[in-house]
Amino acid sequence: MEVIELQIAKEIKPITNKEFSMAIGFFDGLHKGHQTVIQKAIDTSKELGVTPAVMTFNPHPSHLFAGEKGKIGYITPLEEKKRILNDMGIETLFIAKFDRDLADLTPEEFVNDVLKRLNVRHVTAGFDFTFGAKGKGTMEQMTKLANGEFGTTSVNKVAEDDEKVSSTRIRNLLSEGKVSETAKLLGRPFRSIGTVVDGDKRGRLLGFPTANIIPGQELIVPKNGVYAVRFIVDGTAYDGVCNIGVKPTFDHPDEARKTIEVNVFDFDEDLYGKEAIVEWIDHIRSELKFDSIDMLKQQIAEDKQTAKKILTNNY
């Protein structure tokens, strides 16, 4: 997949000898609704004999408008987004830098100075996609502004359990620890990607050695608690049980920092410094504070058995 970075402050130039059927959106999560939009763009590319493409934006608009406290955490980091789009069959990915120059474009400027200059033959987006300064542009308006130079398709909402599939809904589910429900909306397990770091070795002393993961700072993570997970490192997936939280049995909640600790079953290798992926399969229980180390050890053993049963039923 060809990846092309766009900066609106610079002149947008056509890509030589290529025309595009393009899906446009931020596409955080690449959930089932996004997948429907993108697949429609791919199908249209085959009908028109042009290149299937996606235009996304980076960073999230909240990083420009909402200030430090209002930034929205990413469901799908950019590199993960690239991987999924490539697997879907997208051949060209445009990443438009979301800065003030882009945010201030009028709908007319976005269509004339960006889309038309990129040799777009067809644009597909969700029914609620907006563009241009203050989101004033709609898909109906885009059709008029295209003036016959490219076609447009607006895709109706995709629902799961009679409710719209959306990034906001997914964020809410993750904040409640409902990772199995999140997977239904994504069409795959939710993933956290991070680096294995050196921990305090308490898990090993308790008889349950763990890999400690530090996810990217701007990534959303599930609610604190214990989960059945799949742990992926060096392309190989392992079953595991994961605790995400502040370890209240050992640390004062106000002083401790959130960590992701995975007890990987049947695995005991040095992973320090490696990139790892945690696939969240199901929630087991909330994070608890125990009155003794023995009670904690007993609960961890029970959690491990519960996780094994869940993972056996899922694969």
User: Biggest sheet: strands side by side, in what order?
Assistant: 1-4-3-2-5-6
In total, the number of strands is: 14
What is the percent of helical residues? 25-40%
- Morphology: elongated
Q: Quickly name the level 1 CATH class of the largest domain.
A: Alpha Beta
User: Strand content of the residues, in percent?
Assistant: 25-35%
Helical run tally: 11
Structure description:
With 315 residues, the chain is an alpha/beta fold. It has two domains: 2-160, Rossmann fold; 189-314, Elongation Factor Tu (Ef-tu), domain 3 (Beta Barrel). It is 32% helix and 28% strand. The chain has helices spanning 32-48, 62-65, 67-70, 78-88, 100-103, 107-115, 139-146, 167-175, 179-186, 202-205, 293-314, and strands at 2-6, 20-24, 51-58, 92-97, 120-126, 151-155, 159-160, 163-164, 190-197, 211-215, 225-233, 236-245, 259-264, 275-285. It has a six-stranded parallel β-sheet, sandwiched between helices. Strands 9-10-13-12-11-14 form a six-stranded antiparallel β-barrel. α6 crosses α7 (139-146).
Gist of the model:
Helices cover 32% and strands 28% of the residues.
Q: What does the secondary structure layout of this molecule look like, with pairings?
A:
Blueprint: E1 2-6, E2 20-24, H1 32-48, E3 51-58, H2 62-65, H3 67-70, H4 78-88, E4 92-97, H5 100-103, H6 107-115, E5 120-126, H7 139-146, E6 151-155, E7 159-160, E8 163-164, H8 167-175, H9 179-186, E9 190-197, H10 202-205, E10 211-215, E11 225-233, E12 236-245, E13 259-264, E14 275-285, H11 293-314
Parallel strand pairs: 1-4, 2-3, 2-5, 3-4, 5-6
Antiparallel strand pairs: 7-8, 9-10, 9-14, 10-13, 11-12, 11-14, 12-13
Helix pairs in contact: 6-7
